[in-house]
Write a structure and sequence with these properties.
8-stranded parallel β-sheet, 9 helices, globular, alpha/beta, 40% helix
């Protein structure tokens, strides 16, 4: 197979440590994708399977936002899930530390008739049981904000105000939120203001064009250069990962997104 490479261009400014979510490019062999990502100036590959981690690190990248012990529908908002989550996290967070990953992802779970305030309390209880492992390894626990309108019906952590309140109740620098720009545009909009007001609780970012979760170019409603600039202005030093599903050539689309957000 012919190796995929990115277009040659001027060096990146690098004010954002850009990344790409592996699942959006899973038709490209991991060796080709990791090499091309490194050549393009990316710093990491997001949400990669454990078996892909050695290939990612071979090219000087790190795995970011590695899989954790919950699923989107079944998460921390139910106390009966906590023992299994705690048990599974031990190995996962130790593996993350060993590879140099900064974050392990977790999910709230779906409501399934549960009130949001009860779910928030239960999530805080569960996360506090995981904090000793995070503190011991230095690996942060991060919960993703997802939309419940289009993609993840009934998901509980679907608004910034809920997620930020959870982070406040947990009250630890080892727990924060993944602010997914695509998902939060669908649920609440007002992206830049929300980022500026709550940035200390946002440990990670994902991109995606709305509508459709495709390229972040002129075909959709979000203006990513302004969003990226706002994030940089907060002093953010974490990872900014592209999580859109390319409709065109995936390598070309990703390269264009990297340049667009290099502010």
């Amino acid at each position: 197979m012919k190796r995929r490479t990115f277009l040659q261009a001027a060096p990146l400014k690098g004010n954002l440590k850009q990344s790409a979510c592996r699942w959006c490019y899973d038709k490209i062999p991991i060796d080709d994708f990791a090499k091309a990502s490194a050549e393009a100036g990316l710093k990491s590959i997001d949400l990669a399977r454990k078996e892909d981690w050695p290939t990612i690190t071979k090219y000087g990248l790190i795995p970011t936002m590695v899989p954790g012990p919950t699923t989107i529908p079944d998460g921390l908002n139910r106390k009966e899930n906590h023992p299994q989550i705690v048990a599974r996290m031990k190995t996962m967070i130790e593996d993350a530390k060993a590879i140099g990953a900064p974050h392990v992802i977790v999910f709230s779970g779906n409501r399934k008739g549960m009130a949001d305030d009860e779910g928030l309390e239960n999530c805080a209880i569960g996360i506090k049981q995981l904090l000793p492992m995070a503190e011991a390894t230095g690996v942060q626990i991060v919960m993703e904000l997802l939309n419940s309108k289009v993609n993840h019906k009934d998901y509980m952590c679907d608004k910034s105000v809920w997620g930020v309140e959870l982070a406040k109740q947990v009250g630890s620098p080892m727990f924060g939120l993944l602010y997914d720009i695509y998902h939060m545009q669908i649920m609440e909009g007002d992206v830049i203001r929300t980022i500026k007001e709550n940035h200390k609780y946002y440990f990670h970012y994902h991109t995606g064009g709305n509508p459709g979760r495709n390229e972040i170019d002129e075909t959709q409603e979000l203006y990513y250069p302004a969003i990226a600039k706002a994030i940089v202005e907060t002093g953010y030093s974490g990872y900014f990962a592209h999580e859109f599903i390319p409709k065109r050539d995936p390598i070309t689309s990703l390269n264009e997104a990297i340049r667009l957000c290099d502010v």
